[in-house]
């Protein structure tokens, strides 16, 4: 039943199809351009150990950003999964998401050229968090303002989905980066608690207001 | 009814589908390549303020060009929305649009390396305006010469759409850049008046010759 | 009738669809990367005339290559228009076409960094001609060996299409470059005559063995 | 019959369609970016021989990597050919495949900047082999864990397909590179024997457990 609904969802609007092609293109280019900043280190002695010594920071930043863009792509897929029509508001908000994605290679290069004690972690984290917020607003606009998500769910379900889209990327990425960077314990714990609360709320909403609950 | 028409519009011609994939690819690459010119400033001290001081011009040019390419993509989407077939003329004119888009990253780098009193603003503006003209000609060719826009509208409607496609990008971008650059007031006012006249004409044509008016 | 056939042609094989997405992606990236070699000239004085003086060679090479890739894309579209299935042979030959396209930005940079009396024109021309040959072989393989072009045409029609695909890009591009470069008259005339013979043969074949002639 | 099955396979899930667009985008960009490292040699005298002398290593590495990415794309196409749904596990494993593809241009530049006696061959080979393993795991997950391959085949058939996907890229690429690099004979022979055993097992499985055998 659900599968059948998906099938129908995307087929009414060539404008939405093109928006998704365009967005997938931007994601694919940004994720591949991450590797364009990887250069053979000057005076490389040819050994694997030498490469790792000189480039582990670059390769680490590449790996983190690759995962981040991958996760954001998946969030983007979910966000547009049940959208039925192109609307200008969604287009404009989605443009902010794409701007965040297009800036990821730049933010990644900040990350590994970060001087000691610099703000690069914070800038990188802010970019991921803001991209998440833009994604959340795109979903929120589609669900509440333009009302183009079908089948339409209970407002509480839509609100929890909006909250997940908005806050997850920043929280997850923050947790990872802070854990890697040995941040003060209370910040890491604070983030983990927020994340747990967010997921609990989503699960609660799904139980209480989800299709199964409503049907029952 | 309208939605149904859209659905049919795109499905007759694989050639047109490929033209749209190809065009979306060029748009997506150009918009993402904008960020490739963003570099970590030499001797960056690691602070956010330091980054902004050194790079605000680059980031500003990035933001403007991102918005411009986004808007031109949306105009491109509208231009091809009701086209029913691939024709060679549309392909050739569309190639000029794509050339304009592909040159945007270069024009953006001119914009922020602009020496004092240089022509970079004018060159950038001309590129946007010419891309708009190429887009307008593409639509005009499709609507008047090849006659592949369906449902076919009154000639006055097609003419006003052609005028909008042709002049809007240049006028809007010019207005923004001039306002940012504190241009002489009379130029800004002149552009705003032209824009108002253009939109009024479009609204008038839609009322007088649009589908509703004809049906009445 | 013909339109209906097109519609059917592409819908049987997701493998062929993906091959076309992949190819369109390579074409779109190569055509956009042409502009990545355009740089603001060192010590630019900010004027349009200064930019043209310093960069007209680069901009000219960009324009020629943009047109060449556009034309080759259109030939690629025609080549695959009536293909019905993915076959490994077509995939491998198409890979050679894509390699030629991916090398175009490199060949373009050879073109404008060409020292006096160098071979850059010849290298560029050979690349375009070889890409055309690869395209022709792709079509020839599909039409004669794999036999996946539908509706199947008379062998003479297929042969003339194969010849056009193979020789046109090299002949046209050669004619343009040689005319621009003030080549010896007899070479230009030779190329023009070959081109005329080729087109005449195609028109003759279409009249004698085309669908209309066969039906009559 | 088989063709009809393909047709159905891909049409249930827009999520899977977007995953394939996204992946094709990454493949297309990586294969085109290979050529971005090709530069006009310093002090080029303009002759073809001069270009070849200075750049044959770069052009050779470009050709090998182009073929490798092409072959991996084809393996990716086969891997997803009969998949019916998007699943998160497939998405995550596919992300590792894409990371391997995105790193190919970097590995290629290692290959031709390889100092004498360096590990670049081994690093390059490991990357190709690991990408193959990731591809194999993607297929294995889809076939055995998520069970989204239709029509479902005998476990032995799925296992042999998984083994082919996993080991082929590394074996083939290793064989080529070692043959080119004049490796000790016993290594080349060892690889060739492994390859032969792998293919024999696949052929045996197809005969014994394939659709024809089961139907008989």
The gist of it:
Chains A, B, C, D: It catalyses: K(+)(in) = K(+)(out). Chains A, B, C, D: InterPro entries: TMEM175-like. The first copy, chain A, is mainly alpha-helical and 216 residues long.
Question: Explain this structure to me?
Answer:
Chains A, B, C, D: Pfam families: TMEM175. Chains A, B, C, D: The chain crosses the membrane at residues 19-36, 56-74, 86-108, 120-149, 161-180, 186-205. Chains A, B, C, D: It is a multi-pass membrane protein. Chains A, B, C, D: It catalyses: K(+)(in) = K(+)(out). The structure is a homotetramer of 216-residue chains. With 216 residues, chain A is mostly helical. The first copy, chain A, has a domain at 7-153. Chain A has helices at residues 2-9, 14-33, 48-80, 88-112, 120-145, 155-180, 185-209, 211-215. The longest helix of chain A is centred in the first third of the chain and has 33 residues, at 48-80. The radius of gyration of chain A is 20 Å and the shape is globular. The first copy, chain A, starts with a helix and ends with a helix. Chains A and D meet through α1, α2 and α3 of A and α2, α4 and α5 of D.
Low-confidence stretches of chain A: 1-10
Structural class of chain A: mainly alpha
Global outline of chain A: globular
Largest sheet entry of chain A:
none
* SSE pattern of chain A, N- to C-terminal: HHHHHHHH
Largest interface: A-D, 36 and 43 residues
Q: End-to-end span of chain A in angstroms?
A: 17 Å
Oligomer: homotetramer
Beta-strand content estimate of chain A:
under 5%
Portion in helices of chain A: over 70%
Family (chains A, B, C, D): Belongs to the TMEM175 family.
GO molecular function, one term (chains A, B, C, D): potassium channel activity
InterPro entries (chains A, B, C, D): TMEM175-like
Transmembrane segments (chains A, B, C, D): 19-36, 56-74, 86-108, 120-149, 161-180, 186-205
């Amino acid at each position: 039943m659900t599968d059948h609904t998906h099938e129908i969802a995307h087929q009414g609007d060539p404008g939405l199809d093109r928006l998704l092609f365009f967005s997938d293109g931007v994601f694919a280019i940004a994720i591949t351009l991450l590797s364009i900043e990887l250069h053979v280190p000057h005076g490389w002695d040819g050994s694997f150990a030498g490469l790792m010594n000189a480039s582990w920071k670059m390769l680490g930043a590449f790996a983190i950003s690759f995962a981040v863009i991958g996760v954001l792509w998946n969030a983007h897929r979910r966000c547009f999964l049940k959208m039925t029509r192109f609307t200008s508001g969604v287009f404009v908000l989605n443009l902010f998401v794409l701007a965040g994605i297009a800036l990821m290679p730049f933010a990644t290069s900040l990350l590994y050229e970060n001087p000691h004690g610099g703000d690069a972690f914070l800038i990188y984290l802010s970019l991921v968090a803001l991209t998440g917020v833009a994604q959340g607003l795109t979903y929120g606009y589609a669900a509440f303002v333009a009302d183009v998500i079908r089948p339409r769910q209970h407002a509480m379900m839509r609100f929890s989905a909006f909250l997940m889209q908005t806050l997850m990327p920043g929280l997850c990425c923050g947790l990872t980066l802070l854990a890697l960077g040995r941040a003060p314990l209370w910040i890491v714990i604070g983030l983990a608690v927020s994340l747990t609360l967010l997921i609990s709320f989503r699960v609660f909403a799904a139980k209480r207001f989800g299709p199964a609950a409503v049907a029952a």
